[in-house]
Design goal:
Layout lengths: L1 H12 L20 E3 L4 E2 L2 E2 L3 E4 L7 E3 L4 E8 L6 E7 L3 E11 L1 H14 L4 E3 L7 E2 L4 E5 L9 E8 L4 E3 L14 E9 L5 E2 L6 E7 L4 E3 L4 E5 L2 E8 L13 E6 L2 E7 L11 H4 L2 H7 L4 E2 L11 E4 L12 E9 L5 E11 L12 E3 L5 E5 L2 E5 L8 E3 L1 E4 L10 E4 L10 E6 L12 E6 L7 E3 L3 E3 L2 E6 L3 E7 L5 E5 L12 E7 L5 E8 L2 E2 L3 E3 L4 E5 L10 E10 L4 E9 L1
């Protein structure tokens, strides 16, 4: 019981500062209910803010959380969509994302900028005194813009110096008395000579919930030899919400000794991609399961690890039984833990290097060169040394322009892009070379092919890619499709009505679009998640009471082009 008390005190000590400091006001005038919390595990990044529910609707007033000035306004088809950034005088900045629209004066400024730049997407940095705001002033309206998958407000608090995101929940009273849920734990061999129950492969154990805490292994002792690490699949709930949230702290003890602790109260954007090393990336790709490791790989430089002994790796050969306990705490210090037993045995030969593979150190450049493929990895592309595998694959789609090349495997993450060049087989007419591209092929479904960029260069298609896996040279010669929605040539656009056009591309994706009305650029908003372009006629930019001629040009990422011409009255 003594070591549990020590751990509890340690967890409480990780949060510094006053309890719910009263320096930020709520950004909404409805109850603050979370659909996602700070530091949640997301594809390729940690969630940098919180998501507040808006009752499933858009248009809720969004308020400045404190006095300050707007220093950035962004509009994008992805990411935060329409977003406002405010710098306050208390050392903090706040961000309001996925808005449906801005307050009137901000909206006018943004629209003028879009027409001046002839671009829907803009990234604006107003002069210091252009938009001073007061605490509680309306700055916009909640929405579902950008990469949002449902109406909500994404809200961030950042340290002004360095733009480092911190946990917004510490400034608000978010009711939460629900303990984190533990789903499973994992035991990992940490070297080719390590074993878990006699095998050089990980072991995943389902969590069994008891009256006090969780257990795993149903009382059996897990046999380990050589260095091993552990992991945990866990999530949290908050009151009044069914959404799964992340946990704040994870700690590992062995026989009561604290070996590892991870605290997600803050992080920097520069380190957020290290999430691919923090989690079991293979398990994420295979089963969409989030197992957080309680050990650190050599090239995982995230700052959220605040207590590490031997990087969280356990190695002992005493033949004794040891108690492993992993504890998790949420952002309101609700605590859960799981325990299981291991017996450390003398190491044996559990695994050997694969024939034909060779070791690539993580901290230096590496390359693999053959007549028909060139792969160049920059230093620190991997999180640890890998035994690189390569082979040619038979089968797959017939309409490719090269052999299929397996570049290691898709279950190993890379931290940065690497250069890949694949030789094109057969003769390709010069006019079609610009349509060639790299393609990624899903090894589970060989007919599942996705665009991976790249350009023709002296008989090769070369580009920068950010995943390992099966690649080949492909081609895209099919232009995007364009289809007006409930609107025909010669129709009348009613007051307040939106003109909607659906655009799609079956492979490389939409590259750009341009809309001209009566020979002048027109602002159409692009919503890629719904494949929709939308237009609202504005008397400041379009004459009323007459027939107008519209021309829409859409290009995909291989410059295949489609056009739509139609007339409308307004």
């Amino acid at each position: 019981m003594i070591h549990k008390l020590i751990i509890a005190l340690f967890l409480l000590s990780l949060y510094e500062g006053p309890d719910k400091p009263d320096i930020l006001s709520p950004p909404l005038d409805i109850p603050l209910i979370l659909s996602a919390n700070f530091g949640e595990l997301r594809p390729g990044h940690f969630h940098s803010g919180v998501d507040f529910k808006t009752g499933g609707v858009t248009g809720k007033k969004v308020y400045a959380a404190s006095d300050g000035h707007i220093y950035r306004i962004a509009v994008s088809p992805g990411g935060f969509g329409k977003a406002v950034y405010i710098r306050h005088g208390n050392g903090l900045s706040t961000v309001y994302g996925h808005l449906s629209s801005f307050a009137a004066d901000i909206e006018d400024y943004v629209k003028r900028s879009q027409y001046e730049r002839q671009s829907f997407s803009v990234n604006l940095f107003p002069e210091r005194d252009m938009f001073n705001v007061s605490n509680g002033e309306v700055i916009g309206y909640s929405g579902n813009s950008g990469s949002s998958m449902g109406p909500h407000l994404h809200f961030e608090v950042r340290k002004t110096i360095g733009e480092k995101p911190v946990n917004p929940v510490q400034y608000y009273d978010i009711k939460d008395d629900i303990k984190p849920v533990i789903n499973s734990v994992a035991v990992y061999p940490a070297s080719p000579l390590s074993s878990v129950n006699g095998k050089n492969k990980k072991l995943i154990l389902k969590a069994d919930k008891g009256s006090e805490h969780y257990t795993a292994g149903q009382g059996s002792v897990i046999r380990v030899s050589g260095p091993v690490g552990f992991g945990i699949n866990t999530h949290d709930y908050v009151n009044n919400s069914w959404n799964r949230c992340g946990v704040r702290i994870i700690n590992l003890t062995v026989d009561g000794r604290l070996i590892y602790s991870h605290n997600i109260d803050e992080f920097s954007f520069a380190e957020t991609r290290y999430i691919n090393s923090h989690i079991d990336y293979e398990e994420k790709v295979r089963s969409r399961s989030n197992i957080q490791k309680t050990f650190r790989e050599p090239n995982n430089l995230i700052s959220t690890y605040n207590h590490l002994i031997n990087n969280g790796i356990i190695e002992t050969v005493d033949g004794e039984i040891h108690k492993v306990e992993i504890g998790v705490s949420d952002f309101n210090n609700n605590y859960s833990s799981i325990s299981f037993n291991i017996r450390a045995e003398k190491a044996g030969v559990a695994g050997l290097e694969k024939a034909g593979s060779y070791m690539m150190p993580y901290d230096q450049p590496n390359e693999f060169i053959r007549d028909d493929i060139r792969v160049k990895f920059p230093a620190n592309c991997f999180y640890d040394a890998i035994y690189f595998d390569y082979k040619k694959i038979h089968g797959g789609p017939e309409d490719l322009f090269s052999d299929l090349h397996q570049v290691h495997n898709k279950y190993i993450p890379v931290h940065s892009s690497y250069k890949l060049a694949i030789k094109v087989t057969g003769k390709v007419p010069e006019e079609l070379r610009s349509k060639l591209c790299l393609v990624n092929i899903d090894g589970e479904n060989m007919n599942s092919v996705s665009f991976a960029g790249g350009r023709w260069n002296n008989g090769f298609i070369e580009g920068q890619v950010r995943e390992l896996g099966i690649y080949a040279a492909g081609i895209d010669t099919i232009a995007p499709s364009i289809q007006p929605v409930r609107f025909q040539d010669g129709d009348t656009l009613q007051a307040g009505e939106e003109l909607l056009v659906r655009i799609n591309d079956d492979f490389s994706g939409i590259g750009d679009y341009r809309v001209m009305i009566d020979g002048r650029w027109a602002l159409f908003e692009w919503d890629p998640k719904n494949s929709l372009l939308s237009y609202k006629a504005d008397p400041d930019y379009l004459s009323q009471g007459q027939l107008h001629e519209l021309e829409l040009t859409v290009n995909d990422k291989r410059n295949n082009e489609s056009k739509l011409n139609l007339s409308f009255y307004w």
